[in-house]
Amino acid sequence: MSANETPAGQPPTATYDSAFLKACRREPVPHTPVWFMRQAGRSLPEYRKVREGIAMLDSCMRPDLVTEITLQPVRRHDVDAAIYFSDIVVPLKAIGVDLDIKPGVGPVVAHPIRTRADLAQLRALEPEDVSYVTEAIGLLTRELGPTPLIGFAGAPFTLASYLVEGGPSRTYENAKAIMYGDPELWADLLDRLADITAAFLKVQIEAGASAVQLFDSWAGALAPADYRRSVLPASAKVFDAVAGYGVPRIHFGVGTGELLGLMGEAGADVVGVDWRVPLDEAVRRVGPGKALQGNLDPTVLFAGPQAVETKAREVLDSAADLEGHVFNLGHGVMPTTDPDALTRLVEYVHTQTAR
Fold it and tell me: Quick check: helix, strand or coil at residue 108?
């Protein structure tokens, strides 16, 4: 079943008929739906309060805490979708990779993958490895009612980059050295990660997620030819693996203006666009048959209400002729963002686009 079909033999549910899922399916909507990447997190004082003294990875493994954190921005901002609170390295931690998320640094891998022998760290992910995800999504879907829940995972390239570099990088020299110098090892690494990622998304969908987003946060470091040859096959494998569930599949990367068409080609129903490419140009690059998501510059939220409205209006005008548009930022909510600015932005978009 495709993301554009009503479940066979079943009446549409309130969630299925939500503005967010309608936009993903490129159907008419009552208003442009809004959600924000990293909406559940550091910008919210209630988040900082419940996370106090609890390590990031530990918080991702506590269903009660995941549920509360995921719900916080829905309550506060009236966004049209929730996104499951987790981290892209959670499935790697779940299969036994020795890593931690260090405050102020990010994920740090104890034994980076640099040789074929190092691939032994990557076993298959089984549902029982992440039973806390199934439990948390069950709790969430009961609490959310008609509001859709977005599941997510890190794309194979971004996960591979963390694993090879050992942590965050600006140059990706070790990952690219393998990609260029040992393409067979690189292909095997990404293929294993594609299987792990697909398994992680399947757990979320089977537990009740209404859509999934694949974050390829670092794909913007690649030339189009390298993306097509060395990355696209693994991302396509992930999207193909979950196609049969019929939930919308979103693909997002940063600095990927030159890759938008290829990212759509990988199999997404919705292509996320950062703030560098206007949506009317992005639709030309992506081509027909895809909805778009984006793309307000996150830093605009620091500029005051009038500036936010002006820039949001530019995004909406750029999206006027799209078949499907989900309003979002061009990247995640920054930690020092005023939460009230987000609440006002949601209200503005809803009001301006009410049909």
Answer: strand
pLDDT class of 184 with cuts at 50, 70, 90: very high
The residue with tokens 């620091």 is: 302
Q: Which two tokens stand for residue 155?
A: 């794309």
Strand partners, 293: 272, 326
* Bond from prior residue into 174 cis (ω within 30 degrees of 0): no
Asked if residue 283 has pLDDT above 60, the reply is yes
Count of beta carbons in the 10 Å neighbourhood of residue 202: 19
Structural tokens at position 119: 């691939």
Strands 149-154 and 82-83, by their bridges, are parallel
Q: How far is CA 298 from CA 113, 132, 292, 301, in A?
A: 33, 31, 17, 6
Which of these, 106, 96, 230, 236, lies nearest to 160 by C-alpha position? 230
The 10s digit of each residue's pLDDT in 288-297 is 999 999 999 9
For 19-77, the pLDDT digits (tens) are 999 999 999 999 999 999 999 999 999 999 999 999 999 999 999 999 999 999 999 99
Catalytically annotated residues: 38, 42, 51, 87, 162
pTM: 0.95
pLDDT digits (tens, 9 = 90+) for 134-153: 999 999 999 999 999 999 99
Beta strands across the sheet bearing 270-272? 82-83, 149-154, 211-216, 249-253, 270-272, 291-296, 325-329
Between CA 63 and CA 170 the distance in angstroms is: 33
Residue where the block lists tokens 């307000």: 296
Residue 123 CB contacts under 8 Å (≥ 6 apart), including other chains:
95, 96
Q: Say if CB 266 and CB 301 are below 8 A apart.
A: no
- Taking a C-beta distance cutoff of 8 angstroms, is the pair 194, 234 a contact? yes
Given a cut of 60, is residue 6 above it in pLDDT? Answer: no
Total Cβ atoms within 10 A of residue 282: 26
**DSSP 8-class letter at 100:** E
